[in-house]
Amino acid sequence: MGHCLEIGEEQKVCRLERSIYGLKQASRSWNTCFDEVIRGYDFIMNNYDSCVYKKISGSSVTYLVLYVDDILLIGNDVKILGDIKPWLSTQFSMKDMGEASYILGIKIYRDRSERMLGHTQSSYIEKVLKRIQDGTLKMRTPSHETWD
User: Fold this and answer.
1) Torsion angle, CA of 71/77/79/85, rounded to 10 degrees?
2) What is the span of the domain harbouring residue 74?
3) Which of 2-6, 53-57, 114-118 has the lowest mean pLDDT?
4) Which of 41, 71, 74, 106 pairs with 82 at a CA distance of 20 to 30 A?
């Protein structure tokens, strides 16, 4: 009886108790679950981007950014970040990848002595420029491709 398909019962259907990874509804199911859990830790969802959460505790601000099944945690209080990471580990199966240096094609850099955090897409720009120089990047325009 561990199978959905039994001889003589081919016309019946099975009801899934949870989403199967890779199916259309899996990402929605994961996001709903994540939202419930993270709100339970007093994070507030951003009104403009449902994958960005914020938590304020006194002068400490923590942002949690969700991209598919990756979480970027940013904050101005190392102790609070240190408290959130183990809590997240109790809620989800996860691996701490350390300090972020590259995410979604964006390079993240910081200078702690100057209290500066920044980002750049220079590698993406260089990649596009190289494709233009090589002639492998075709522009779609209503005019001719050459001046001849």
Assistant:
1) -10
2) 19-97
3) 2-6
4) 106
For residue 84, tell me if it sits in a domain. Answer: yes
pTM value is 0.68
Cα–Cα distance measured from residue 98 to residue 90, given in angstroms and rounded to the nearest whole number: 18
Most confident of 11-15, 49-53, 125-129: 49-53
Q: Does 41 have pLDDT greater than 80?
A: yes
**Exposed e or buried b per residue across 78-91, where buried means at least 16 C-beta atoms within 10 angstroms of its C-beta:** eebeeebeeebeee
Taking the C-alpha atoms of residue 55 and residue 57, their distance in angstroms, rounded to an integer, is: 7
- The reply to whether 117 and 92 lie within a common domain is no
65 bridge partner residues: 52, 72
